[in-house]
């Protein structure tokens, strides 16, 4: 668990000391189904979960502050199933934590976290418990995802349109760090707070006048306060076009410690020739080569050192700039992605 975050994605510790083949069917499993503005998917998931053959389970719906009437619809559809409301969007990990906390306080021995856009097979939970039964060292078991009706699916990566700009548009401002993200999302609030409070003071020991731009719509008061109280921290709020910030900054940072697929803003920064410093988790979906295409930092100390390396060495800065842009052009360019997608569709038709 990453303890610098106010909420953590918890791993359930399971007591395996007194398991037997005969008692696992008596273990209570909470099936936690998350919902955020997607009640139709959730209904299908819950209805399939009601057909589970495992004898001891409870379904728990956790609504993450939906604004589409989900709570009312789900309570009316499933009056006998417990639904808890988080009150606002806590993000994926925060919502899971709320469900896990409730389950543990109500006697759960195990928790199962199927996505709400899936439908579970009747014997799926029983099969998962058999895996636990067969090896007392097991602490986490994962489900196999398959597509309904054996559908052939072609999966394509996100794309980036490489920025077309004139030489005089690239007016880099030295010693300028950029963070970009929707600032009403908890994961981005946590990341910006982490960088400003834990990392920026370390960088300022070497570069006192370094500037930080936090660009993204709807920043909360706690983020605005950083800009109000620090003349070198700029909280922009919504901007019409983030391109100018990608072309002005000298370093891009993404201190994200919760996985969520490919973060396209990282690719946008690299496409603009802006060296990126991100976490190992942030690179999981991108698969760039660490310390060549981008830099990896997983601690405040690393995030404090890596910007200094490239801010003080123009040759090194240029290498990361060119390598990052070449990586995006090779793997995520819009035109190549379109061509690949067209070929995939042609393949699906044959």
CATH topology of the largest domain: Rossmann fold
- How many separate domains? 2
Shape: elongated
What value does the Rg take, in angstroms? 23 Å
Oligomer category: single chain
Walk across the major sheet and give the strand order: 7-6-5-8-9-10
Mean pLDDT: 84
Residue fraction in strands? 5-15%
Low-confidence stretches: 1-22, 150-156
SS summary, helix count: 12
Major beta sheet summary: 6 strands, parallel
CATH top level of the largest domain? Alpha Beta
Reading the helices and strands in chain order gives EHEHEHEHEHEHEHEHEHEHHH
The rounded distance between the terminal residues' Cα atoms is: 46 Å
By DSSP, the count of extended strands is 10
What structural category characterises the helix and strand content? alpha/beta
CATH 2nd-level architecture of the largest domain: 3-Layer(aba) Sandwich
Helix residue percentage: 25-40%
CATH superfamily (homologous) name of the largest domain = Glycogen Phosphorylase B
Describe the structure.
By secondary structure, the protein is of the alpha/beta class. It folds into two domains: 24-148, Spore Coat Polysaccharide Biosynthesis Protein SpsA, Chain A (Alpha-Beta Complex); 167-339, Glycogen Phosphorylase B (Rossmann fold, 3-Layer(aba) Sandwich). 39% of the residues lie in helices and 13% in strands. The chain has helices at residues 39-49, 70-77, 91-105, 124-134, 186-204, 221-229, 243-248, 264-271, 280-283, 300-311, 314-331, 334-349, and strands at 29-35, 57-63, 82-85, 110-112, 176-180, 211-215, 233-237, 251-254, 276-278, 295-296. α5 (186-204) packs across α10. It is elongated. The two termini are 46 Å apart. The relative contact order is 0.11.
